[in-house]
Amino acid sequence: MKYKIVVDSSSNLTSTYINSPEIGFEVVPLTIRVDEKIYVDDDTLDVDAMLDAVNSSQNKATSSCPSPYDFAKTFEGAENVFVVTISSKLSGCYNSARLAAEQTEGKNIYVIDSKATAGSMILIVNKLKELIDANLSFEEIKTQIDEYINSINLLFVLSKFDNLVKNGRMSRLTAVIATALAIKPLCIGVDGEIKIKEKIRTFSGVLRRLVVNIGLLCKETHNRICYICQTKNLADSLFLQKLISERYGFKEVKIVENRGLCAFYSLEKGIIVSF
Fold first, then answer.
1. Residue 86: how many CA atoms within 13 Å on its side-chain side?
2. Is 23 helix (H, G, I), strand (E, B) or coil?
3. What is the pLDDT of residues 153-202, one digit of tens each?
4. Distances from the Cα of 250 to the Cαs of 220, 221, 229, in angstroms?
5. pTM of full prediction above 0.85
6. CA–CA gap between residue 83 and residue 27 (Å, rounded)
7. Could you give the count of Cα atoms lying within 13 Å of 39 in the half-sphere of its Cβ?
8. Could you give the dihedral angle defined by the CA atoms of residues 186, 190, 194 and 198, in that order, rounded to the nearest 10 degrees?
9. What residues contact 240, with CB distance under 8 A and at least 6 apart?
10. In the chain, which end has fewer C-beta atoms inside a 10 angstrom radius, N or C?
């Protein structure tokens, strides 16, 4: 096999996402610890059971990134490997994958910091497959994927910020604003970090402002896909999908259910939009 794409499980993808004899595909799982139980974020994870455990626990639940060895195992069977990880400013996945690549000889391995998570990583995987299918060289793919990443935007709305705050994924000031009872912030990913873009009073209001901000961030939506990644909030996601589809010319607006890591941090009602 000439090419392989590897992602960590914050992408919300399962191991069957790409089924091609020409392109290998693997998902490296993160883990979530709730009290004494370890939940592996793989294809078999029961997300509902994990969230129930998080909500019923009195202790801080934590997440852990894969080891360099976990990543290195996935490099087997291909000459050229592209690895896509969650933002290096939110997790150690990128550094772990880089270390694995540095210790692997005889292969072309490029580790990509998505500077985001969830749907943004799916967009990168889709683009990598498109570039590989176009028979570009390894170096040409590296150049084009770096340019493409800079064109991706991520906005999100959460109802609860508990695990982001407890695990240090948000600055103290951002956390104070985000957890204020009267505020429903519209958040944005900026160079891999979480920032508050707008402060809105209601959840429906912040969804509408999210739609407006798509147009401010992305002037040309045609031939692009928009991903809505949601945690136990299909109703609001369908509402958002309708608003986005009516206002913009995306090729598709897809709804994806958040799996382990994204569900753990976004919690119930959380919505992450990438385009």
1. 28
2. strand
3. 999 998 877 667 677 666 655 656 656 656 788 999 999 988 889 989 89
4. 9, 5, 16
5. yes
6. 10
7. 26
8. -20
9. 207, 210, 211, 228, 271, 273
10. N
* CA separation for the pair 2, 22 (Å, rounded): 7
Beta bridge partners of 226: 253
Q: Which of 72, 56, 64 is nearest to 29 (CA)?
A: 64
Q: What is the DSSP string of 96-126?
A: HHHHHHHT--SSEEEEEE-SS-THHHHHHHH
If you search the block for the tokens 């009073």, which residue do you land on?
201
d(CA 248, CA 55): 37
Angle at 126 between CA 103 and CA 194, to 5 degrees: 75
What tokens does 115 get?
């500077």
Whether the Cβ atoms of residue 81 and residue 73 lie closer than 8 Å to each other: no
The DSSP letter of residue 57 is: -
Nearest residue to 4 via CA among 116, 117, 97 = 97
State the residue for tokens 């509402």. 239
One-letter amino acid of 269:
K
Residue 71's identity, in one-letter code, is F
For 11-67, what is each residue's pLDDT tens digit? Answer: 999 999 999 999 999 999 999 999 999 999 999 999 999 999 999 999 999 999 999
